Amino acid sequence: MATFKAPKGTYDLIPPVSVKYLAVREAISAPLRNSGYGYIETPGFEDVGLFARGVGESTDIVSKEMYAFETKGGDQLALRPEGTASVLRAALEASLHKQGNLPVKLWYSGSYYRYERPQKGRYRHFSQVGAEAIGAEDPALDAELIILADQAYRSLGLRNFRILLNSLGDKECRPVYREALQGFLRDLDLDEETVRRAEINPLRVLDDKRPDVQKQLVGAPVLRDYLCDACKAYHEEVRALITAAGVAFEDDEKLVRGLDYYTRTTFEFVHDGLGSQSAVGGGGRYDGLSEMIGGPALPSVGWALGVDRTVLALEAEGVELDIPASTSVFAVALGEEARRVLFGKVTELRKAGVAADFSFGGKGLKGAMKDANRSGARFAVVAGERDLADGLVQLKDMESGEQSAVALAELIDTVKARLA
Ligand code: HAM
User: Fold this and answer.
1) Whose CA is nearest to atom 2 of ligand 1?
2) What is the DSSP letter of 270?
3) What's the CA-to-centroid distance between 227 and ligand 1, angstroms?
């Protein structure tokens, strides 16, 4: 029979490494949970039109990378390539914005799908933890999100990341810039596809990594010179607030994100140890998205941090997360009667809040002690028929190697006291 493998561009999270992913999700979400963000979960697929309209028909994400399909019932769906459009759709559908408590602050954690060319740090299935603050135009909200992401990365022990910051202007000033940029691009010697991109989404051309294109872009009009006074003032306030919070950032006027919904504040977290897939997270303001998907005007801001790339960044920096062993007590039973008694004790320990595991499969002492070692447990509880006849079990401290007899009736209390 054929053996199956994980699909191309995907990988499995397997112990013991998988625990790092849990720790990263936990560390990224902790500052959000601590700052008034409520947890939201949306389906893994949506109406394809949501992303086409929200993320943008001309983006690579929608035009090349989306897993779109028709269901047996004839619905046009897509696996979600990102979370912002879904979260806003869900907030609108539940009328969260009508409850007089704007901004609605939400966080999420989940799987996303993009049909990209796989390479290190770029997968077809990946996971993000994200945050969206919906329905308020307030530079302090933009600043809050950037500060919380910085705090999340620092709490993990990451140091070699940089924050790139830009303003993309709004519906007043960006069209003027767009036209100026298009005028400039029309005079360049570009390939057909880039010429087409220049007509649909000229800002994306600035993002072109090819040296011959970059050379021609010298002297291109810069958005900063076109920002209207309101956008300029807004951006200055965001900059001042994050500076005051002690969060370092770099102004990057070339920062253009790969999604069309952004306005004003945009930012990216990049890590220098990751090669070409250096963006570990990104986000920004999307004041027009709600209207683009049929909702009322709801200026909003958010970000998503990539869990996979964050784990790679930790590895690149050699950061070892301080993850406590998941098992505190490992029970080794020798003989049928001992199995019954110790299995009962393991259940009692678990109910008492002590992480406990059991030597399954009827192994002998040597094999079972190996399992106890591997589990990382602080204590092994060993019992054979003779111990039990005396009402005892042997409690072995796996760190010091010391072993002592403990009365079976006092096992739970003794273990709890010694773990405390
Ligand atoms: P994004 O920049 O497309 O933004 O994705 C955010 C992060 O997800 C990236 O920085 C990266 O770490 C991770 N990521 C994206 N694609 C892949 C991939 N193929 N393989 C591995 N990791 C990947 C968004 O998704 C926006 N929804 C962020 C946002 C929220 N903006 C406002 N609110």
Assistant:
1) 282
2) E
3) 26
Domain boundaries, the chain: 17-173+227-316, 329-419
Confidence band, pLDDT 50/70/90 cuts, at residue 209: confident
Structure tokens at 415: 């273990």
DSSP count for the chain of H helices, then E strands: 16, 16
146 Cβ below 6 A of ligand 1: no
Please give the CATH topology (third level) of the domain spanning 329-419: Rossmann fold (3.40.50)
Query: Is pTM beyond 0.85 here?
Result: yes
Name the one residue in this structure whose structure tokens are 């924050």.
Answer: 163
What does the pLDDT look like over 106-141, one tens digit per residue? 999 999 999 999 999 999 999 999 999 999 999 999
pLDDT class for 256, splitting at 50, 70, 90? confident
Nearest CA to ligand 1 atom 9: 281
Of 3.40.50.150, 3.30.930.10, 1.20.1070.10, 3.40.190.10, the CATH number of 17-173+227-316 is 3.30.930.10
Dist. CA 306 → ligand 1 center (Å): 6
